[in-house]
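Page header: ASSEMBLY MODEL / two components / 778 residues total.
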Amino acid sequence: MSLDHDQTTDARVRERGDSAVLRMSESALAQLGVIDAPAGVAHDLAEDETMFINMGPSHPSTHGVLRLMLELRGEMVVRSKPVIGYLHTGMEKQGEQLSYLQGTTNVTRMDYASPLFNELAFSMAVEELLGLEVPPRATWIRMLLTELNRMSSHLLFMATNGMDLGAVSMMIFGWREREEVLRFFEKVSGLRMNHNFIRPGGVAADLPDGWRDDVLRLLELIPPRLDEYDTLMTGQPIWQERLQGVGVLNTAEALALGVTGPLLRSTGYAWDLRRDMPYLAYDKVEFDVVVGTYGDSFDRYAIRLNEIRESMRIVAQILDQMPKGDYRVQDKKVTPPPRARIDESMEALIHHFKIFTEGFKVPEGEVYAAVESPRGELGCYIVSDGSAHPYRLRIRPPSLINLQCLPYLMQNGLIADAVANISSVDPIMGEVDR
Amino acid sequence: MDALLAVELAYWQQTTLRVIGGLVAVLLPAGTLVYVYLFKMMSFMQSRLGPMEAGPYGSLQLLAEVGKFLQKEDVIPAKADRWVFVAAPFVVLMSTFLLVLVLPVGPDLYFIDADTGVYLALAVSSISVIGILMAGWASANKYSLLGGLRAAGQLIAYELPLILAVVGVVIQAGTLNMQGIVFAQADGEIFGWGAIGNPFFLTQFLGFAIFLIAVQAELTQPPFDMPVAESELVAGYMTEYSGIRFLLFFIGEFATAGVFSALAAVLFLGGWYVPGIDSDSNLFNIIGPLALFAKMMFVAFLIFWFRFTLPRFREDQLQQLAWKYLIPISLVNIVATGVLKVVF
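Prediction written out in full:
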């Protein structure tokens, strides 16, 4: 058995085996002799020369309930297969039973590390069906919150990535900074996660008093902490050795596998929906799309770290440009009336009652809206039959699709690399299984 | 010990004293390290307070933890190799107890005054590998097995730099006797200047650095904690252990950290000697243990500082570090020490 990693370290574009092995069923994978070995792997092994190890669904570094079947030769991963479905809650199906107003409550629980993006994608899809024009302040509040959410999500990645690679202190540091952001979310929406704050027609409430100071405080607090990460991790020789050249992906492979987000950008392909298909008001702010060079785990780490900085740049611009006005559309059919109006006006009471019992009707049609979530392209596809519930709700989860590349990344690495790869894909299992 | 008390002791009395002394020498540093470094220093490094409820500043947390472990159900996996599984933690702990025997804590305070003290210390320290392999094999768990094998590979690889790092000290002191090494540092002088003696970390700085790195690997602490890497192998060879058996492993881990730190203090920092007092002074039988304890805490501080800061190596990088860098450097160190010893 060879522990020599020079091959993978030097050759930035790795030779890839037969992709058929990826499509094998779980039971077929278990029957060793039946399957042809992927090219590049000496598979003339006797049956007892490899060992199957079942990593997960309950394992410290599988980010929830991802299960991996690993075929090991010594410590080397010969083949691997992710098995999903342990967190399946039927949220997409449930979405068909819930009204459009309740829909955000449902979708926000999918990617629980970046809940606001789910709400945003869903709301944008519904608004497109309704033909609603969201007031500018709502748009900018959405931008502010989603950028802060991108920061908190990437900070969570910093924490888990550090933990997976054995840097115990890094875990706490990541959580610590994320907590600061979540504290702001709590002030805005009342909840740390699963906010249900972005809703079809705008946002649930205006920003609270003093929000500007809170955001400014975040902008002051986090950059020095990111520099600390640089000292602790980025420049650290062990950290570099563990991540550089590990889990290499090239652009063609990434595109073929449908990978998006930091994984795709790490290969040097600058694809960011915020810039390439601007939604909200991203065409009015200035930011850079961070790309990598080698497509390895280190690039993915560095991209996420720098995306936090870019997000802060965007947030600073949002602070300057935040318009005044309504935070939701004044369409009586979509927006519940203000509380005071209910006591005065019979009509308002009826509208309020109708919206919260039947929900509002959405014209027939189908629509796809996509946003750039911290993990990639998060899309929401809705088919409406003209009633108050979606006929079909489908979320394009970036985590699920990014997870496809895991067997590619892990092949011929060590177990330690496997863990680094899972970590750098950064899957959120709630979103994968939905 | 009888020299200090200046009384004749019967054999059973001596034995009792030695057993108590051994227990204290193993458990006291272990407890101190867990509280001061694992509970408190780690917490402060991570912007948190650590345990604060049990006793003032959480100082009784350790007792609470031990009580918790003692109450736990004793689980042995159905397919485990029962006797090996049960024996493994004791083998690991035994190596720690044997290791403490050669440590001199004062001019007349020692358990055994072996002429081959250093040799004995390094020999018994590798017994723990057997215990870890036993644990890994007997657990009937693939993660445990991988952890056990990783541990074996790692400990064998780092045994070598550990020994080679000490060779420089032995050459300089001209003896393998631990007490002799302390006296050599206490009475030595650096280019004719003997005010602080000659603590070997000044002249053997390479050896000291290599020794610390190798100790870190021997203790399987981050960045060398692959055998118990919780994000890869759950808990490696300790995965299936719970209750008192896990506690034994835990004590073994920290006691060994303490003993190795003390060993480093004896070999490189002058042991129980404090500059300014004549090394023949009987005073050292009282302040010697305290001085050694302080030095041990300093070395342990370095060890735990690395532990809480650095990410984990990968298995092949770990072997590379040992074979490509540490061993050649320590060989160069030995040659240089030998040449300089002859020249001066």
